[in-house]
Design brief:
Order of helices and strands: EEEEHEEEHH
Number of domains: 1
Strand content: 35-45%
Shape: globular
Largest sheet: 7 strands, mixed
CATH superfamily: Nucleoside Triphosphate Pyrophosphohydrolase
CATH topology: Nucleoside Triphosphate Pyrophosphohydrolase
CATH class: Alpha Beta
Number of helices: 3
Length: about 140
């Protein structure tokens, strides 16, 4: 049996500047799934076959948050690679700015809540270091 293809994923960090001029990050509260507990996290998703990572990141923000009005999309030049069983996975991180903290959010069924967190609160809420590192790269 040959090695499986590399699985490509994206991570999207949605952010804005609040009315007080402070940077805020949209952090979602995941519903428990596949034996995992609920957790606060940034958005992760799969890259479909033939899809560009940047477009996958934009698509996932629409599917999971209901956000389609994005001011800017930036590749954070940060990625994570790991191997699970016999399959390698690569995650590319992107940031997406929206114009207002008041943008309507329509969560899909994978989430049970969200919060616009400061950088400090977002980092403290992350379970994994790679998410915290990525948050600090948003400019």
């Amino acid at each position: 049996m040959g090695a499986k293809e590399t699985c490509m994923k994206i991570a999207s960090i949605v952010w804005t500047i609040d009315p007080n001029g402070e940077k805020r990050f949209l952090i979602r509260h995941n519903r428990p799934f596949d034996g995992y507990d609920d957790e606060w996290t940034i958005l992760f998703g799969n890259v479909d076959e033939g899809e560009k990572s940047k477009l996958a990141a934009i698509r996932e923000v629409g599917e999971e948050y209901g956000i389609f009005d994005i001011s800017s999309v930036n590749n954070l030049d940060y990625s994570l690679e790991y191997k699970d069983k016999d399959r390698a996975t690569v995650i590319h991180f992107f940031s997406m700015r929206v114009e207002s903290i008041d943008i309507p959010i329509q969560l899909n069924n994978e989430s049970i809540g969200y919060d616009w967190m400061t950088l400090e609160k977002a980092i403290a809420s992350m379970r994994y270091d790679d998410e915290s590192i990525a948050l600090t790269k948003v400019g």
